[in-house]
């Protein structure tokens, strides 16, 4: 066998002695007792308390509690009770004018010989006007709307007046009144009678609905100030109360009538002449036009030739046909999806 020196694995004697010294001379035996986990006894009461209740003596003291807030009662307005109506000492002409319109509408529109006179006028709201009126069994409230749909006028009919109108609509005569609830048939009869009253009071009013509950009618009305007109309606031989509620705005075109002064001459208003619309027929003459010959050869009677005109193409506008005078010079182009002309110079026809 070859020696170790021949295959290159031989070590010097010095290296062999170093290897022998590095190897351990003794080996530790395996002890199973040392590998077992160390068991601890149960925690004492002090240790448990230290874990559950740590020492917080190094923390800052708690702040002093705030003094209890003093509860003060505040006055809450009673929203269920509407404001009281403010009576007026005078009777304005607008109220008299509206009462006259109502009387005329009752005669012409409803065919009833009834006349309304003003007893009192006050200011308030729809809720206060409907709340202060006498709540009777059988009363009806006619609601009228503005063009935008808001309820801006109401006519509160007393139970006696509503019953008299219903009997008149049925062909009878008002007699002894017995309070009763209005039926759907009664409401339909009243609707037919009071429908023309809206346009009779004002051209901008239209009938909306008939209500028998004052609170529900107040919920439908537009908020704001109103003029309340208490009326005394004479129907046949009886006098019955009613209340007309109108929104305080310029809706009812009841402006004051100018005074009739003696010796005053009213000058007629000068009518300024208005420019009448004029239709002009003009012909556009293009300075230059470039069209492919193939488009011209394919033209037939009634066909349309689309001109691909460039922007700002100069043209002349002729008045009266192709041989007419030049009315203006312009530039032809496009504005959006349409062809347009921009006048650059006016001719004698447009001056």
From TrEMBL:
Flagellar motor switch protein FliN-like C-terminal domain boundaries: 281-345
Membrane topology annotation: Peripheral membrane protein
Alphabetized Pfam families for the sequence: FliMN_C
Top-rank lineage group of the source organism: Bacteria
Keyword annotations from UniProtKB, A to Z: Cell membrane, Chemotaxis, Flagellar rotation, Membrane
Location of this chain's protein in the cell: Cell membrane
GO cellular component, one term: plasma membrane
GO BP of this protein: archaeal or bacterial-type flagellum-dependent cell motility; chemotaxis
Free-text function comment from the UniProt entry: FliM is one of three proteins (FliG, FliN, FliM) that forms the rotor-mounted switch complex (C ring), located at the base of the basal body. This complex interacts with the CheY and CheZ chemotaxis proteins, in addition to contacting components of the motor that determine the direction of flagellar rotation.
UniProt protein name: SPOA domain-containing protein
Species whose genome carries this gene: Hyphomonas oceanitis SCH89
């Amino acid at each position: 066998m070859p020696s170790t020196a021949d295959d290159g694995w031989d070590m010097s004697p010095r290296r062999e002695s170093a290897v022998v010294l590095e190897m351990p001379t003794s080996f530790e035996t395996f002890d199973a007792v040392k590998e077992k986990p160390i068991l601890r006894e149960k925690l004492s009461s002090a240790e448990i308390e230290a874990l559950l209740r740590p020492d917080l003596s190094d923390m800052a003291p708690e702040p002093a509690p705030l003094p209890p807030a003093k509860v003060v009662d505040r006055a809450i307005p009673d929203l269920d009770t509407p404001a009281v109506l403010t009576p007026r000492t005078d009777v304005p002409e607008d109220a008299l004018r509206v009462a006259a319109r109502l009387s005329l509408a009752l005669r012409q529109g409803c065919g009833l010989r009834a006349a309304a006179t003003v007893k009192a006028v006050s200011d308030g709201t729809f809720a206060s006007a409907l709340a202060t009126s006498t709540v009777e069994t059988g009363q009806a409230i006619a609601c009228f709307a503005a063009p935008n749909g808001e309820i801006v006028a109401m006519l509160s009919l007393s139970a006696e007046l509503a019953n008299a109108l219903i009997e008149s609509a049925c062909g009878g005569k008002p007699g002894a009144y017995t309070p009763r609830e209005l039926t759907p048939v009664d409401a339909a009869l009243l609707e037919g009678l009071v429908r023309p009253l809206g346009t009779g009071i004002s051209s901008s009013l239209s009938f909306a609905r008939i209500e028998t509950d004052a609170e529900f009618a107040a919920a439908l009305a537009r908020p704001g100030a109103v003029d309340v007109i208490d009326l005394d309606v004479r129907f046949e031989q009886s006098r019955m109360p009613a209340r007309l509620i109108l929104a305080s705005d310029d809706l009812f075109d009841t402006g004051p009538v100018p005074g009739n002064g003696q010796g005053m001459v009213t000058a007629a208003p000068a009518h300024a002449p208005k420019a009448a619309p004029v239709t002009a027929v003009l012909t556009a003459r293009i300075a230059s036009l470039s069209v492919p010959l193939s488009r011209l050869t394919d033209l037939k009677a009634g066909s349309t030739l689309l001109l691909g005109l460039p922007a700002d193409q100069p043209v002349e506008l002729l008045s009266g046909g192709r041989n007419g005078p030049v009315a203006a010079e312009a530039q032809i182009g496009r504005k959006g999806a349409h062809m347009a002309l921009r006048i650059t110079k006016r001719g004698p026809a447009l001056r």
